[in-house]
């Protein structure tokens, strides 16, 4: 009996060892296959990505090919057009080969006239450029002379080739008056010093008011006030700073050339001003238009 039990126990132990070994082998094989499966899945994903990229590149190449075909068609059209023009030019050259001497002379004169006009235009451009340079130099000199003043009270600029000097009303006059204040003479003196160094310059002094009606009773209206202010400035420039009166003009613009709206106190203050306009030297410009002799 003991022998029988021992034999059975040995058999079961041997069977258990064999099963455990096979299980471990199967587990190891499963793990290996699982790793391979993951690798195959990764390869499949990469293949799908490469396929998408290749498809996109194919579509782009097809689009580029279509554009190139369109450009080739356009270039062929241009070639045909140039061929037609070439034929026309050749025919014109053939026709010109039989021109008479008088026709040839006429063509030569036309070409000479074109050359002369081109030179004339270049001279005008150089003269205008020189005029602009002189204006800018004048502006810089004026700004240097009055540089210590507030920009709100005096403004110097070039507009369409004309130099403008705007001086605020409060720097020159008391409210409703046209007598130039003592402090204003310092401002006018600085401007006059620059203008006096340019003896060929002609300029106009303009008086400007806001739209508030003049009620002093001494003068009729804003027209009178603007003119009286302009002539008061002109007299100072002539009598105290020695500017040539033949180069000066005085005018009044009343309220009708405002810089901005008169609806606010600030706007009205900007519009009350004296403007010195450096007049263009039209006589020198018109000399450029005269045909050159010889």
Characterization of the model:
It is built from 7 helices and 5 strands; from the N terminus they run ααββααβαβαβα. It has a 5-stranded mixed sheet with strand order 1-2-5-3-4. The protein is 65% helix and 11% strand. Helix 2 (101-145) packs antiparallel against helix 4. Strand 1 and strand 2 form a beta hairpin. By secondary structure, it is an alpha+beta fold. The radius of gyration is 48 Å and the shape is elongated. It has helices at residues 2-96, 101-145, 169-172, 182-196, 222-239, 265-271, 282-289, and strands at 154-159, 162-168, 202-208, 248-252, 273-279. The model has no long low-confidence stretch (mean pLDDT 76).
Notable traits:
294 residues; alpha+beta; 5-stranded mixed β-sheet; 5 strands
């Amino acid at each position: 009996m003991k022998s029988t039990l021992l034999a059975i126990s040995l058999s079961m132990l041997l069977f258990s060892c064999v099963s455990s070994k096979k299980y471990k082998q199967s587990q190891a094989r499963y793990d290996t296959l699982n790793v391979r499966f993951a690798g195959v899945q990764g390869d499949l994903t990469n293949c799908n990505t490469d396929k998408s990229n290749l498809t996109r590149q194919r579509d782009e190449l097809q689009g580029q090919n279509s554009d190139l075909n369109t450009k080739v068609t356009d270039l062929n059209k241009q070639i045909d057009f140039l061929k037609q023009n070439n034929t026309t030019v050749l025919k014109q050259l053939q026709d010109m080969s039989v021109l008479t001497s008088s026709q040839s002379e006429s063509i030569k004169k036309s070409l000479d006239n074109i050359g002369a006009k081109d030179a004339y235009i270049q001279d005008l451009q150089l003269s205008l450029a020189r005029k602009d340079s002189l204006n800018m130099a004048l502006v810089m000199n004026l700004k240097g002379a009055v540089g210590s003043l507030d920009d709100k009270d005096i403004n110097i600029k070039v507009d369409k080739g004309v130099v403008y000097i705007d001086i605020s009303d409060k720097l020159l006059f008391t409210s409703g008056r046209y007598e130039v204040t003592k402090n204003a003479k310092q401002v006018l003196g600085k401007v006059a010093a620059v203008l006096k160094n340019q003896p060929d310059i002609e300029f106009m002094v303009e008086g400007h008011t806001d739209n508030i009606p003049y009620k002093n009773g001494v003068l009729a209206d804003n027209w009178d006030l603007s003119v009286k202010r302009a002539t008061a400035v002109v007299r100072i420039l002539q009598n105290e700073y020695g500017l040539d009166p033949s180069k000066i003009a005085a005018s009044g613009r009343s309220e009708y050339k405002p810089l901005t709206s008169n609806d606010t106190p600030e706007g009205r203050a900007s519009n009350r001003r004296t403007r010195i306009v450096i007049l263009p030297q039209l006589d020198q410009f018109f000399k450029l238009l005269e045909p050159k002799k010889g």
